[in-house]
Every structure is written in C-alpha cells, then in structure tokens.
Amino acid sequence: xxxxxxxxxxxxxxxxxxxxxxxxxxxxxxxxxxxxxxxxxxxxxxxxxxxxxxxxxxxxxxxxxxxxxxxxxxxxxxxxxxxxxxxxxxxxxxxxxxxxxxxxxxxxxxxxxxxxxxxxxxxxxxxxxxxxxxxxxxxxxxxxxxxxxxxxxxxxxxxxxxxxxxxxxxxxxxxxxxxxxxxxxxxxxxxxxxxxxxx
Length: 199
Known about the structure:
6 helices; 3-stranded antiparallel sheet; Acyl_CoA_acyltransferase; 4-stranded antiparallel sheet; alpha+beta; 24% strand; 9 strands; GNAT family N-acetyltransferase; GNAT_dom; acyltransferase activity, transferring groups other than amino-acyl groups
C-alpha cells in the first residue's frame, strides 16, 4: 500500500467517491488530491486533498479537506497515511500550518491537530467555516496543525503495512461507525468516515 498524487484520468473515480461519501467537492481539481493504492491489486483505497486559498491581501492558506476511505479499506490506517502524505506536501510547499474545518475533531487530534478560536482563523477560512456550517456541517470547528508537529500513531502505521481489501462479510454495516471516524458529517446522513484505530 502506498499513497501518491492523483492522476487526471482518476478524476471520474474521485468525483464518484466524493459524491458517494457526501464529501466537499468545492473548487474540485484532481491535481490537489492524493490517492492510496494497493500495490498488489492496484485497487484505490482512499484519497484526500489540500486546498490552497489565495487571499488578495494575505499569505496563502493551506486547508486539509475531502478525506475519504473506500468502505472495504476502512480501519486499516489508510486515512492516516493519506493525511500524512498531504501534510508532507504542505511542508514541501513551505506551509508552516495546515487548517481543517471538522464536526468531530477527535480523529485529527491524534495527529497533532488542535482546535483554534474562530477569531484566530484567517479571514478566508472564517468565510469558508460559515459556509460549511450553513451547507454541510453545522457543528464544524476549526483546527490547525503546525506541519512539523505531525505525529503518526504507531498502531496506524502497523495497520497500513498489513492493509487488505475486505469483503462485506469481513465487516458488517453494524460496526461501520465503530470502525470509522467522522470528519464532520452525521453518520445517519452520510458516509464521511475515516480510520480511528479504535476497537
């Protein structure tokens, strides 16, 4: 299993999965995404995006958004490694901080993300937070990570090494919520789910 930059030809796959999971596709560009790939089968397991905001009168802002894991690959560290790759990309682009706007912050907190006061957000993200609360996630809160502070929990690194595609019999719908962490959408309304590392 590895994570690489998305390719133009994967745009349809990305859009289909973004829609199926109820994720944010605002200002979609496939080149902003990374995709987790199973090296044996070539199956796509998960994806995520960094969105760069370019205010006219302020430095560029880096936002982590639209992270999704295909149901057959959940609870195996895929989402964690997508996030790691995105944080690496942000660092390579000289961003010191990465922001995220989420309804349930616990998943990102395990990597070092911390809640931030709305008043301390860059203006562009304050506007985006207002829009997200209005249209997607009423309880979204802002979080921030200093790129150099990213931490990958050992349990997620180990799971990723052994990740394999599961069938429906391997994992039932009843334990989906326990397997996957929410990134801001009500689980009864959508499937905005991520690896938690919890059992």
